[in-house]
């Protein structure tokens, strides 16, 4: 679609340098600043190594979707929408962590740019400044994962907002409207399983838009046919993925699988006391003002209320912001209920009791709520301007000099704050890159490199970082870089006898020592007659001078 519209504009000679405005320049600067930083970024987040980065690597090296024999892919039921996008990207440019992250950023920036379409007057700096500020705020509420990773919790709300923007802009062209809906909802459904929640939102908005459209050609029958066709085509990719999972993996159950059997097994493992405790912790967490998503929900409501009051004082009449406030809160409540049900029905007890990933999951709906506020606000604010004829607007068409100065100062202030927030986000990503130098991924990669040949060798990683071993981060990082489905990690070996220590090593093909593990060094010197430093060692090398009893 994007290519089509660019070609059309070029054909009509409507793409010229003099048409560059503050919107284009702002997004160009935003894209260059973060794009350059993200190209240099490295994978850090846990879930990149447990799935999202790993699946892109698998797709790239195997040139096929995972099957029942792909043991290295633990979460086989996860949809591969964004992973396929990154896969195609690295196929053309080359496989690299920064390239994968940049590929997802291209998807993100296209969705952000689509949001601007709801602005009625593209030369109105104030309305753009509001949307740009909201876009900058997205980064603050996305700090649980940031953009320097391949997780999709940030992508979900942005694709949804882009779809809503597209429906709004093309509400008078039913065929283009339906096409945009099918493309974006079809993609949205295969980004992540809970993407269906956002698909339903988009389809409901599409349904309302079609039903209220009045033109003689579009009879009730034609509208009904368009609605049914659009819904079926929108759900086709998601249904196809579910069928693929069923016929490819059979009864093999994957984490967070959309399956009645999986939900039943997990729920039956929870006693009534555990369920009650999960609900109590959930309730306490969402009421805590220290929780970032809660701060976001409060901010959304405050923004709506302040804007409603301000515009009422200016125009002395109601606007659609009140409806927007109610709709947004209903969506947030339903999404929170969905998160709670996920903890109860599809998460193991330990993860559910710790509300694992709550801030990340909730950030999706907070970002979506902020985007909906931006849509309602810019339309309502535009309607409050003294001159409603866009072609007649200029720096002279203000009701008073005071209004003109207020418009200018507010626009400058909002753009200034947006710039600070974007620079802060860029610095945060750069700090993560600096912090990467001492991280587990860097330690393993320095020794093993990034193996691109899928193998079944058995690896043991020795590390002094017990915490990262206990939460399986070290193992997943090892699985990604060593590209093997059998990677273990150990820290506590001090209680092992000579035979147990030698027996442990003999179970693996290679041993990686990624930091100064004094116990392993001492035991290697004592039992193996080897002076071991950081590095990778084969079993044959370690045991070649040892008599195994």
Explain what you see.
This protein has 549 residues and is mainly α. 66% of the residues lie in helices and 4% in strands. It is built from 23 helices and 4 strands. The chain has a 4-stranded mixed β-sheet. The longest helix has 35 residues. The mean pLDDT is 87.
Short note summarizing the structure:
The chain is mainly alpha-helical and 549 residues long.
- The whole-number mean of residue pLDDT values reads 87
**Estimated radius of gyration:** 27 Å
Strand content: under 5%
**Which of globular, elongated, flat, extended, rod-shaped describes the shape?**
elongated
> Could you estimate the helical fraction of the residues in percent?
55-70%
Number of strands: 4
Main beta-sheet strand count, sense and barrel state: 4 strands, mixed
Q: Look at the helices and sheets and give the structural class.
A: mainly alpha
Question: What count of helical segments does DSSP give?
Answer: 23
- What oligomeric arrangement do these chains adopt? single chain
Strand order of the largest sheet: 2-1-3-4
Low-pLDDT ranges: none
Give keywords.
549 residues, mainly alpha, 23 helices, 4 strands, 66% helix, elongated
Write the layout of secondary structure elements.
Blueprint: H1 2-11, H2 22-39, H3 46-62, H4 81-93, H5 97-115, H6 125-141, H7 155-169, H8 174-189, H9 195-212, H10 220-249, H11 260-268, H12 272-287, H13 292-315, H14 321-345, H15 349-353, H16 358-383, H17 401-435, H18 440-448, E1 455-462, H19 466-470, H20 473-482, E2 484-490, H21 498-506, E3 510-513, H22 518-528, E4 535-538, H23 539-543
Parallel strand pairs: 1-2, 1-3
Antiparallel strand pairs: 3-4
Helix pairs in contact: 2-5, 2-17, 3-4, 3-20, 4-5, 5-7, 6-16, 6-17, 7-8, 7-9, 7-16, 8-9, 8-10, 9-10, 13-14, 13-16, 14-16, 18-20
């Amino acid at each position: 679609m994007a290519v089509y519209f660019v070609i059309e504009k070029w054909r009509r000679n409507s793409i010229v340098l003099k048409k560059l405005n503050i919107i284009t320049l702002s997004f160009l600067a935003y894209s260059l600043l973060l794009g350059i930083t993200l190209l240099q970024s490295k994978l850090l987040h846990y879930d990149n190594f447990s799935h999202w980065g790993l699946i892109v690597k698998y797709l790239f090296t195997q040139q096929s979707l995972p099957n029942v024999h792909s043991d290295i892919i633990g979460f086989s039921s996860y949809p591969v929408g964004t992973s396929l996008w990154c896969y195609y990207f690295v196929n053309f440019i080359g496989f690299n962590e920064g390239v994968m992250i940049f590929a997802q950023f291209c998807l993100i920036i296209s969705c952000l740019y689509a949001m601007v379409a709801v602005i009625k007057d593209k030369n109105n700096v104030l309305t753009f400044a509001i949307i740009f500020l909201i876009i900058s705020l997205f980064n603050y509420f996305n700090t649980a994962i940031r953009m320097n990773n391949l997780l999709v919790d940030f992508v979900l709300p942005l694709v949804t907002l882009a779809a809503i923007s597209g429906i709004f802009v093309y509400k008078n062209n039913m065929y283009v409207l339906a096409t945009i809906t099918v493309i974006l909802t079809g993609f949205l459904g295969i980004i992540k399983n809970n993407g269906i929640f956002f698909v339903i939102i988009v389809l409901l908005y599409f349904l309302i838009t079609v039903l209220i459209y009045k033109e003689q050609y579009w009879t009730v029958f034609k509208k009904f046919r368009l609605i049914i066709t659009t819904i079926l085509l929108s759900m086709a990719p998601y249904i196809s993925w579910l069928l693929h999972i069923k016929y490819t993996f059979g009864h093999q159950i994957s984490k967070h699988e959309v399956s009645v059997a999986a939900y039943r097994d997990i729920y039956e493992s929870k006693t009534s006391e555990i369920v009650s405790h999960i609900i109590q912790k959930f309730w306490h967490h969402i009421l805590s003002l220290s929780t970032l998503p809660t701060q976001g929900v409060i901010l959304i409501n405050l923004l709506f209320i302040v804007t409603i009051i301000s515009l009422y004082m200016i125009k002395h009449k109601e606007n659609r912001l009140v409806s927007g406030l109610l709709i947004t809160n209903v969506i947030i409540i339903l999404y929170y209920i969905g998160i709670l049900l996920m903890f109860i029905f599809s998460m193991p007890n330990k993860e559910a009791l710790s509300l694992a990933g709550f801030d990340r999951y909730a950030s999706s709906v907070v970002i979506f709520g902020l985007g909906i506020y931006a849509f309602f606000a810019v339309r309502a604010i535009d309607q409050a301007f003294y001159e409603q004829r866009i072609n007649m607007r200029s720096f002279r068409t203000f009701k008073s000099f005071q209004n003109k100065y207020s418009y200018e100062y507010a626009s400058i202030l909002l753009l200034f704050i947006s710039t600070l927030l974007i620079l802060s986000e860029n610095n945060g990503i750069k700090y993560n890159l600096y912090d990467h130098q001492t991280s587990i991924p860097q330690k393993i990669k320095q020794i093993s490199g990034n193996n691109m040949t899928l193998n079944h060798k058995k690896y043991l990683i020795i590390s002094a970082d017990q915490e990262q071993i206990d939460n399986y981060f070290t193992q997943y990082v090892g699985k990604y870089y060593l590209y093997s489905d059998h990677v273990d990690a150990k820290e506590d070996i001090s209680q092992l006898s000579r035979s147990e220590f030698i027996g442990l090593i003999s179970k693996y093909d290679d041993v990686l020592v990624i930091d100064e593990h004094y116990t392993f060094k001492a035991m290697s010197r004592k039992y193996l007659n080897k002076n071991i430093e950081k590095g990778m060692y084969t079993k044959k090398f370690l045991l070649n001078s040892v008599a195994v009893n």
